[in-house]
Design goal:
Helices cover 45% and strands 7% of the residues. The protein has 299 residues and is of the alpha/beta class.
Length: 299
């Protein structure tokens, strides 16, 4: 199980009341929600291996160089990502919780958590479930390799398992065509323009007709046959920008990640340190839930 950590703790922050505080008044609602989510997911889905992927670089310079608008609207005035004031201080606490519990966490220079997940999902020698509330990672779904998404957009308790059939049902496209679909459609939440004037329905129709983005572009270079009215001209107008958008949308699958041991631990590395962590932040119950979930995997 690969955790899109930022996706999870943002949802935890907005889903758990900010009245959850430590003894000194520090708000720890995102930490509690994150730990409770891990406990729930492990208990419900019983993975044997668990990795928390982190955003070492939430807006890599190489992606911005390709598409300058990439996440530009989320840059804070002082630089960095615009994050709620009460959430920023909780991220180091979440990282400390992962370490104290013995959960493998990985962030890579010049890479987003998506890229860590893409690399691990592609190289895993076992079935993979990716926990995220973001559609970007739908491109990694692969029935042949048993890679699926646990989609938490509607909450952890209402998580939906996304496989190739689910992508086809949602978007009426071939199961593995999501990256091409997203490139054409764009994504305003990430500042990706897509092909102006080509929305979801048009993009899906083109993929059904021509198979993939390469097939669409090859057909567009030949003639306007098979294209909806006006669509051919829109594609030709954007044709110079499409390669850059494809690279930005594509999740990396070849990061140089050192060998790891992502097995769910049978015992925490330092019980006293974990107890001190739980006491410091008033999170004994949430920590206990995670430990119970881990014990159930090893039972």
């Amino acid at each position: 199980m690969l955790l899109d950590s930022a996706s999870m703790y943002f949802r935890s922050f907005f889903g758990v009341p900010d009245t959850v505080v430590a003894a000194d008044g520090t708000i720890v609602n995102a930490v509690k929600g994150f730990l409770d989510a891990i406990a729930f997911l492990v208990s419900a889905r019983r993975p044997t291996h668990l990795v928390a992927a982190m955003d070492a670089d939430w807006r890599p310079a190489w992606r911005v160089e390709l598409v300058p608008s990439y996440k530009a609207h989320r840059v804070a005035p002082e630089g960095g990502e615009e994050v709620p004031d009460a959430l920023s201080p909780q991220v180091p606490i979440i990282e400390a919780a992962l370490d104290a519990l013995g959960i493998c966490r990985i962030g890579m220079p010049d890479a987003e958590a998506d890229d860590v997940i893409g690399t691990l999902a592609t190289t895993a020698a076992m079935p993979v479930e990716i926990v995220t509330g973001d559609r970007d990672l739908f491109q990694l779904v692969d029935d042949a390799r048993d890679v699926a998404i646990v989609y938490i957009a509607k909450g952890f308790g209402n998580a939906e398992r996304i496989d190739e059939a689910a992508i086809t049902a949602k978007y009426d496209i071939p199961g593995r065509a999501y990256a091409d679909f997203a490139t054409m459609r764009g994504d305003t939440s990430d500042g990706l323009p897509g092909v102006p004037g080509v929305g979801e329905k048009t993009a899906a129709g083109l993929l059904r007709t021509f198979g993939d983005l390469d097939g669409i572009l090859a057909a567009a270079a030949r003639s306007d046959e098979g294209f909806p009215r006006g669509c051919h001209a829109k594609l030709l107008a954007a044709i110079d920008d499409i390669p850059a958008m494809r690279r930005v949308v594509a999740v990396a699958k070849d990061l140089p990640i050192d060998p790891i041991d992502p097995r769910i631990p049978a015992a925490v590395p330092d019980p006293d340190a974990l107890d001190a962590f739980a006491e410091r932040w008033g999170l004994h119950n949430s920590v206990a839930r995670v430990l119970d979930a881990f014990a159930s995997v090893h039972a």
